[in-house]
Amino acid sequence: MKDHRLTSTPLLAVTACLLWSTAFVGVKTGLQYAGPLAFAGIRFMLSGLLLVPLWWPHRPTLRDTLRHLRLIAWIAFFQTFTLYGLFYIGMTLVPGALAAMVVGASPLVAAVLAHFLMTGDRMNRAKTCSILLGLAGVAILSLSRLPWRSATGLMELAGIAILLLSNTAGAMGNILVARHTTSLHPLFLNSAQLFIGGFALWCLSRPLEGALPATLPWPFWVSLAWLAFLSAAAFSLWFTLLRRPGVKVSELNLWKFLIPVCGALLSWLLLPGESPGLWPVAGMACIASAIIMYNLPAFRPPSPYTNRH
Fold it and tell me: pTM of the full predicted structure?
């Protein structure tokens, strides 16, 4: 009988990516009023707390939690502390649309790391062609701004490098979740790693950025509330998908090519001073083609001669 959980994988993956694509506007808004580490720390602590009512009926025993504490800590280190610490710092150096495009390189990083670190998740011709086409789109989007010619060109290039490092940390977090089978409920695992990673970021922000202002305007609180919600929802969906039998890290991460397209569109629409051009549109077309090229077979009935799902 066909596993309907697997047939819903594309829909859930797209939902998570669409949620993540809204983060660039929210982060750029919140960073006008708070330091990157403090803002990220508060966001992810709130995200972790938002999930408590959902996993409480399935809460693990204290013994089971302590037995998996090291895994939770490592996931929190890569998936929240390092990934989003670097992401928020990078976002202070580049426009929101450009950040969305650079983050779009994350499927390539995930696929390469999964090739070396995951059993049965090797690169093949279709996967390689899709990734290269998507990466070409990201390169066109990034280089179309000619950052080396702008007054802040070196800062933008540094921001791009920092965002690429954050991609690597996120890929390692994905691999940790996929490699280690535990009895912990995915919602609990996500909630715990979000709160621990966020708390570590907040603690680091205190000596580096100082305390937040006593009063903050409503755009900060709106962006914080939305970002906390989307992190709780998107990561929970993603962790659930990563734990499904038959779902591969590299294939699932191909859906993240949606993030730069939607993130750039929202940044152009909502952030002042950001607008599209011919080359950015061409890059987005490459990214969309990469997604279609590789993922359309996911909607077809599986062949009896393949074991992709």
Answer: 0.73
Neighbours of 204 (CB within 10 A): 16
Q: Which amino acid is at 110?
A: A
Roughly how many angstroms between the first and final C-alpha of the chain, as a whole number? 13
CA 19 to chain CA centroid, Å, is: 10
Q: Which residues contact 10 (CB under 8 A, 6 or more apart)?
A: 255, 295, 298, 299
Taken as a whole, the chain contains a residue count of: 309
Q: Are 122 and 115 in contact (CB under 8 A)?
A: yes
* Both structure tokens of 69: 């504490």
- Dihedral in degrees, nearest 10, Cα atoms 61, 67, 72, 74: 170
Contact 235, 115 (CB under 8 A): no
Residues with Cβ within 8 Å of residue 133, at least 6 apart in sequence: 286, 287, 289, 290, 293
Per-residue tokens: 6? 């697997």
Report the alpha-carbon angle 93-99-102, nearest 5: 120
Token duo for residue 151: 């007054």
User: What distances in angstroms separate CA 255 from CA 6, 48, 295, one per listed residue?
Assistant: 15, 24, 8
pLDDT tens-place values along the chain, 309 residues long: 444 444 477 788 888 888 888 887 888 888 999 999 999 999 999 999 998 998 898 888 888 888 889 989 998 999 899 998 998 898 888 777 677 767 766 777 777 777 777 666 666 777 778 778 877 877 776 676 665 665 566 777 788 789 888 988 888 887 887 776 667 888 898 899 999 999 999 999 999 998 888 788 999 999 999 999 988 888 888 877 877 777 776 667 677 777 777 777 777 777 766 666 677 777 777 776 776 676 555 444 443 333 333
225: amino acid identity, one letter: A
Q: How far apart are CA 18 and CA 53, in angstroms?
A: 24
